[in-house]
């Protein structure tokens, strides 16, 4: 059984169709990234899966249960990492993690979780005094304290500096290695490429492409761009046979600054969301 | 795709979830901890009624009998301030800062959240009442009731008042989108009701129509209950609108508001500003 199964999901706000027929399958133990520009319907879709939002139509099954009808037992198997919470500001990191641990039947050890997210040195600091990156790590701690089978991360690293993002990625990889299923939304392509087993691109409320980061949008088979420097400046050709093209070109002499590139994930993505 | 490993994260749950009551107590402890760490709560919510009593009392109260009545009414007003206004505000703040959204994603039942809030209001109201009585005793020679019967009345009026007004505060918090406009939504009825319910002006001094309006709302009945507790003797009941303490009616009205509050909370409560 898949961790998440979605068929024909629809949701409209007034006259705006935010989600217009989304199909999605996420296997157990998989790290799945949903990419898309702002307003593509990412957050709406995820909130429906989390049970935070009603849907207009479609079938949704999360851990075998319809989120609209789910109860406490189901929620105890989920970990939801919030995007922009500033709650519990006057509690210390330790107090907050210990408190949330009490909600679950079989929580992780709070001290271990604090250590896992790298907040041991900040355990006695109040949540309101943490930096942006530290605060998000506390959110992760509160999201995973209940030993969830499925974790939702909605744009987790927005506003992080590069170092904080790398640390955060390490944390997610650790969770994935433990067998936790992870659904992640992001608009950073390098993040999807670094973390996800599979990605889907959401645009205008629909999934426009789905695959591994390496093959998304036919990326692996796309034409390569061969680029070199001649007397007249940079030259560029697009070809499906770059090796042959270079062999032909090099007969006329040395090719300065020769490069062969496939479209980056970013190129593919920008093409898809047009 | 990674191979799913059957590790501690993926094993199915068998452990039972904690009970609603124990979670409610735990919520209450955390709510209190957060409340007392915010200085503005200590200054405005806890101390304001005592401060008002000190100021207004110094100007108007010339005799012990009046101090008794005034202190009783101020305790009543204080309860409304912590429950109706304070709790309403704190629910709006919980919605704004993500507390409610986070709780919604955990297996904690809503009843536990509300139980925690009631504990918060109960304890903070008690602190407020004790401070107010201390000011009364030290500054205005307030006499505390000595009979167990009076304290019993105090206990049930206090409890019923806290529960009823907390429910209405939570229900009204659904109207307010942010803590900024919540202050208006909640304070306006509170201030108006203080004038209509015999806190600042004796009810017998009000025109009939205003008195009738006031008697629809809990504040009048809570204050009347406390006046019955703190009056020097029961002869002072003649100063009430009905000429008696009407304890049975107090229980009835507050009980009715508790039920109305429960229904309203059930129908209007929102976990976030954007859901649905």
TrEMBL record, chain A:
Look up the domain of life of the source.
Bacteria
Gene3D superfamilies, A to Z: P-loop containing nucleotide triphosphate hydrolases (3.40.50.300)
Asked whether the UniProt record includes Repressor among its keywords, one would answer no
Q: Which residues form the ABC transporter domain?
A: 4-229
Q: Where is this protein primarily located?
A: membrane
Q: How does it sit in the membrane?
A: Peripheral membrane protein
Family matches, as InterPro entries: AAA+_ATPase, ABC_transporter-like_ATP-bd, ABC_transporter-like_CS, ABC_transporter_ATP-binding, P-loop_NTPase
Sorted alphabetically, the keyword list is: Antibiotic resistance, ATP-binding, Nucleotide-binding, Transport
Q: What is its subcellular localisation? A: Cell membrane
What family does the Swiss-Prot or TrEMBL record give for this protein? Belongs to the ABC transporter superfamily.
**PANTHER family according to UniProt:** ABC TRANSPORTER ATP-BINDING PROTEIN, ABC TRANSPORTER ATP-BINDING PROTEIN NATA
Full protein name:
ABC transporter
UniProtKB/TrEMBL annotation, chain B:
Q: Which residues form the ABC transmembrane type-2 domain?
A: 36-272
Transmembrane feature ranges: 42-61, 67-93, 114-134, 154-176, 188-206, 250-269
Organism name? Lentzea cavernae
Q: Where in the cell is it found?
A: Cell membrane; Membrane
Task: Tell me which InterPro entries the record gives.
Answer: ABC2_TM, ABC2_TM_bact-type, ABC_2_transport, Nod_factor_ABC_transporter
The record's section on PROSITE patterns has:
ABC_TM2
- Give the bilayer topology: Multi-pass membrane protein
Record protein name field: Transport permease protein
Q: What is stated as this protein's family in its record?
A: Belongs to the ABC-2 integral membrane protein family.
Lineage, top-rank taxon, reads Bacteria
> Any keyword Transcription?
no
Q: Which UniProt keywords apply?
A: Antibiotic resistance, Cell membrane, Membrane, Transmembrane, Transmembrane helix, Transport
- Does the entry feature the keyword Repeat, yes or no? no
